[in-house]
Design goal:
By secondary structure, the protein is of the alpha+beta class. The protein is built from 23 helices and 13 strands. Strand 7 and strand 8 form a beta hairpin. Helix 18 packs across helix 20. The longest helix has 27 residues.
Length: 609
């Protein structure tokens, strides 16, 4: 079959712009949002100054902005907001606690279970919160077992990507491919239409991630020892057989190596005693203490006391919860009461009702010399990470003597977790049975999350990602240009010409491999939107059903394993585990090849090629 002649000028313009766009999307020094706006502007201006006409009529430049109202983008944004409801309410945290418990007894089995749970959850929920949930658990496991977390984090991150391939809502890439294919005249895919090949290939991938991948990753030093540095206020009930009974407070604190912070001593029903060093602790007293969960449990064990929160004894089934708590960043400014002083000097916790968790200093790492954060002299420009109630944070902002950054983060509202799970379940159910389109179902779920107070409108706005919105809109615009001008048909003809005479199964496999390579170099959403019209054109020219070729594009565009920039969760894992670029190549490339070979066999068998 001869190689096709060059396409018309407009198609050539779109192809060159697509190459330029992929180059811009690849650049780390140019914000992705900027690159997307440049592509949209050049595309619309080009077709404004040089109008395009064909047998279908005139291509209006304003059509390139239709991606902002496209159902795929609506569904992606709504699912991000609904997923934020699961994060803000801590709805997934019971799974985390369950995994944390079983890791103590059966590490190898626990890794397999972690991979399976990560993959299954990612088929229905955005994988970013799942990765955020599992990172601290796996890092904690590695620290307790005195091993490097590098053999755990990368397999877990890849498992969430593999799981996301299984349903139409698993990733934004899936939603885009399904929506663009429907725009091109194909029958809309159901939520589980390609779950079977995804499950078979995913099972093979999980075995690789379980048994092989941990052995391929060299030991790396984790950059973050604790990704969830939350502080809680609780009460230690002093029993008659407790070490603290009859001892002065100074001696009790000394028993904890001076680490325990006692803010109040409650005695009887109403009496409250200031925590002076010479105050004698008696059986029946309740010490109000503030610290991390691990430290609080350690104090309980060391002192022989019992730990309570809101009248409920703290244990695995009733862990510590932080209601209406926020994390916020404070900047020490010139003239601030903190400048040149330590937190201890200003009695920071007592005066402001906030607990300092961490300190960032731009020019160097702060050396605390084992004296603790409270004794470090603060400099102008230092950034403190603090935790406190919403009212305390709001009051702190009103004072105006210390700058509060806008990066305030609310901590989970666990009592609203059940309603968030029910809402997300209804979103999935209505879309799965075809009662509502996924865009409508997800949008309804997002609104219910707000109406039931699982999240606020501020949470909803924070959940939306400008880069995701713009990359989807820009990719859809390029897809419109490629389809309308015949550029997609030209690429399809070129692809068929290069593989002329090859069986359909080889063409399908080649297309999937092309997308797998492309997605590890540029945005997976861009690769998916560009690849879908090409897949339909290839199938049309071969007089074959287009569905398997579209699914090949979907799977290929999801094989974001070989580079850290291929997928946002790869970057999260890279930072947490201290991985290098070469680690992703070493573990990810074999996984890409394994998935490609598996699906190249499975898809032709399922579709009778």
């Amino acid at each position: 079959m001869p190689f096709p002649d060059l396409p018309n000028g407009h198609a050539l313009f779109v192809l060159l712009l697509t190459v330029f766009a992929l180059y811009l999307f690849r650049r780390d020094d140019i914000p992705l949002e900027t690159s997307c706006v440049v592509v949209l502007l050049v595309l619309t201006m080009g077709f404004t100054f040089a109008p395009f006409h064909n047998f279908n009529g005139h291509l209006e430049p304003m059509q390139f902005f239709s991606g902002f109202g496209h159902e795929a983008l609506v569904a992606v944004c709504a699912l991000m907001v609904a997923g934020q409801g699961l994060v803000r309410t801590g709805a997934l945290e019971p799974i985390g606690r369950f995994l944390a418990r079983i890791w103590k007894t059966a590490p190898l089995f626990s890794l397999l279970l972690t991979l399976l749970i990560a993959g299954i959850l990612s088929a229905f929920v955005n994988n970013t919160p799942i990765v955020v949930l599992l990172l601290p658990i796996l890092i904690s496991v590695a620290v307790r077992s005195n091993r490097s977390p590098s053999g755990l984090l990368l397999p877990m991150g890849f498992a969430t990507i593999v799981g996301g391939m299984a349903t139409t809502i698993g990733t934004s890439t899936n939603l885009l491919v399904v929506s663009v294919a429907a725009d091109l005249g194909l029958e809309r895919f159901g939520m589980f239409d390609f779950m079977l090949p995804a499950a078979i290939a995913g099972a093979i991938a999980v075995v690789y991630l379980w048994l092989v991948a941990p052995k391929l990753t060299p030991e790396r030093q984790a950059l973050m020892k604790n990704t969830s540095p939350r502080i809680f206020t609780a009460q230690l009930h002093i029993n008659e057989d407790s070490f603290a009974d009859g001892k002065p407070l100074a001696e009790v604190i000394g028993k904890t190596d001076g680490m325990m912070k006692v803010t109040r001593i409650h005695r009887g029903s109403d009496a409250s005693i200031m925590p002076m060093p010479d105050a004698i602790i008696r059986a029946g007293d309740k010490l109000r203490v503030t610290d991390s969960p691990d430290r609080l449990k350690e104090y309980e064990q060391v002192l022989g006391a019992r730990l309570y929160k809101s009248g409920q004894e703290v244990n695995d089934d009733h862990p510590l919860t932080a209601e209406n708590q926020q994390l916020s960043e404070l900047v020490v400014t010139p003239g601030s009461p903190l400048a040149g002083r330590s937190l201890k000097d200003v009695s920071f916790m007592n005066q402001y009702g906030l607990v300092a968790i961490a300190l960032h200093r731009a020019d160097r790492v702060v050396d605390m010399h084992n004296k603790g954060l409270g004794k470090v002299t603060l400099h102008v420009g230092d950034v403190l990470l603090v935790q406190g109630g919403q009212s305390e944070i709001a009051e702190f902002k009103k004072r105006g003597d210390i700058l509060v950054l806008d990066a305030t983060t609310d901590l989970p509202r666990s009592h609203r977790a059940p309603r968030a799970l029910i809402i997300m379940g209804l979103v999935i159910l209505f879309a799965a049975v075809g009662l509502l389109p996924i865009a409508v179902s997800a949008l309804g779920g997002a609104l219910l999350m707000i109406l039931t107070h699982c999240i606020t409108w501020r949470d909803a706005m924070n959940a939306l990602s400008a880069p995701v919105v713009l990359i989807v809109a820009a990719s859809l615009a390029l897809g419109i240009g490629m389809t309308a001008t015949g550029a997609a048909e030209y690429l399809a003809q070129a692809f068929v010409s290069v593989l002329h005479g090859a069986p359909p199964a080889v063409l399908l496999s080649g297309l999937m491999l092309l997308l797998a390579i492309l997605t590890n170099v540029v945005s997976n959403n861009a690769a998916a939107v560009i690849g879908t019209p090409i897949a339909v054109s290839v199938a049309t020219q071969l007089n074959l059903p287009p569905e398997p070729f579209v699914i090949a594009v979907l799977f290929g565009a999801n094989m974001s394993f070989a580079t850290p920039m291929a997928y946002k969760t790869n970057l999260l894992v890279m930072n947490a585990g201290g991985y290098k670029f070469s680690d992703f190549v070493k573990v990810g490339v074999p996984l890409v090849i394994l998935m490609w070979i598996s699906l190249s066999i499975i898809l032709p068998l399922l579709y009778g090629f």
